[in-house]
Design brief:
The protein is an alpha/beta fold. Helix content is about 40%, strand content about 15%.
Length: about 350
C-alpha cells in the first residue's frame, strides 16, 4: 500500500461538450475513487498532484502538463483518428494521425478503453506504455424506471402499443444517421427516435445538411429528433430497443447504459463491439439486415430474452469494478515511478 494519492481529473467540456461520452464516463469514476481514499479534484489549477489524468485534451490540460512538472501524466485515449472520420470536418485528413501521436506521446502513460483501440494507437505511433481501462457505468443510476419511461413516451407522442427504437448519439454520418433514416423509411409501422444533437456545431460533418434534416425529422411521420434530454434514464426506459448503426467506436458507452436499463441492443457489426459485447447484442451490417432484425424484435418474448442478455453484459462494466481496476493501475504506476 502506498501513501494516499492526489489526482487531478482533467475533463474539458463546457456547454454541449459536457454531453459527449468521454466526459460523462470520466465523471462516474470520481465518487468510487474517493471512497477508496484518493483525493480527487476536477480541473484544479493546483500544482501538487501525484497524478494528472486527462480524460479529454485541450488548452487547460496542456497548461497543467507544463505546470505540474513532478506529477505523473496519464491520458485516456477515448478518441482516436478513426472516430473523427465522418464525424468532424477534416476528419478524413491523415494529419489527425500526427496530431494524436504528438499529443498522446506527451504523456507518461496512455489508457485505452478497449484492446481494439490499443491496436490503432500502436499503428499511429504511440510509444508509451498502454493500459486498458474500459468505460464503466454507475449501475445504481442506470436502472429501468417504468414511471420515467412512460413519461418519456407520453412527452414524445409514442403510444404504449407502438414499438420504439431509440438512438442516443451525436448527429453525424459516423454515428450512422443516414442509415437510421433509411431503416425508418423501410419500417413505417415502427417509431424511431434520435436523442442527441451537434456538440461540435459547424465543425460537425454535414452540419448544414443534417441540421435541415433534424428540423424536419427527415420528413417522416415515424421518425423524430428530440435533441438532448435531461432524463436519460427515462429515454432508455421508454424505449423498446437501442438501435445504434454507428460506423466506428472505441468502446460503445450507450450499449452498456441501455443494457443496464434492461433494453436490448441492435448495433452495427464492428470488431470492437464483438470484442467487448460478444453475442449479448444483435448485429447487422446494412439496411436490409437491420430491418430483418427489427422485425424479430416485434416479438415480446424475443425482446425479453435479448433484454436479459443486454443486462448481463452490463454487469462486467459496473463502474465499481472498473474503478477498482483503475485504482490498482494507479498504484502500480506510482510504485514504479517512486
Amino acid at each position: 500500500m502506498i501513501k494516499a494519492m492526489k489526482v487531478n481529473f482533467i475533463i474539458e467540456g463546457s456547454g454541449l461538450l459536457k454531453y459527449i461520452g468521454c466526459s460523462t464516463a470520466a465523471k462516474q469514476f470520481v465518487d468510487y475513487l474517493i471512497n477508496k481514499g484518493i483525493e480527487i479534484k476536477i480541473n484544479s489549477k493546483e500544482i501538487d498532484f501525484d497524478i494528472i489524468h486527462a480524460h479529454t485534451f485541450g488548452p487547460f490540460a496542456l497548461r497543467q502538463l507544463r505546470k505540474n512538472k513532478n506529477a505523473i501524466k496519464i491520458v485516456s485515449a477515448h478518441s482516436t483518428p478513426s472516430i473523427n472520420r465522418k464525424n468532424i470536418i477534416t476528419g478524413e485528413c491523415k494529419f489527425w494521425n500526427w496530431i494524436y501521436k504528438y499529443i498522446y506521446n506527451k504523456f507518461d502513460y496512455v489508457f485505452a478503453v478497449s484492446d481494439f483501440s490499443v491496436k490503432e494507437l500502436r499503428n499511429i505511433g504511440i510509444k508509451k506504455e498502454i493500459f486498458v481501462v474500459e468505460n464503466g457505468i454507475d449501475k445504481k443510476k442506470f436502472i429501468y424506471n417504468e414511471k420515467n419511461g412512460e413519461k418519456f413516451r407520453k412527452d414524445h407522442g409514442i403510444k404504449n402499443e407502438e414499438l420504439l427504437l431509440i438512438n442516443i448519439a451525436q448527429i453525424t454520418p459516423r454515428k450512422g444517421i443516414y442509415d437510421f433514416i433509411k431503416v425508418a423509411q423501410k419500417n413505417p409501422d415502427i417509431k424511431f427516435l434520435w436523442v442527441g444533437g451537434f456538440p461540435y456545431k459547424y465543425a460537425s460533418s454535414d452540419y448544414l445538411k443534417l441540421k435541415k434534416i433534424y428540423k424536419k425529422n427527415a420528413g417522416l411521420d415515424n421518425l423524430k429528433f428530440v435533441g438532448f434530454v435531461e432524463d436519460i434514464i427515462g429515454a432508455y426506459s421508454g424505449s423498446d430497443v437501442l438501435f445504434t448503426p454507428t460506423y466506428a467506436e472505441t468502446f460503445g458507452l450507450t450499449i452498456i447504459e441501455a443494457g443496464s436499463c434492461n433494453i436490448p441492443i441492435i448495433a452495427r457489426k464492428l470488431d470492437v463491439f464483438e470484442e467487448l459485447f460478444g453475442n449479448k447484442i444483435s448485429y447487422g451490417k446494412n439496411i436490409e439486415e437491420f430491418s430483418d432484425l427489427i422485425n424479430k424484435f416485434k416479438d415480446e418474448e424475443f425482446r425479453k430474452k435479448r433484454s436479459k442478455d443486454a443486462y448481463s453484459l452490463s454487469e462486467k462494466y459496473d463502474v465499481k469494478l472498473i474503478s477498482d481496476k483503475l485504482y490498482n493501475i494507479y498504484e502500480k504506476i506510482l510504485v514504479k515511478e517512486i
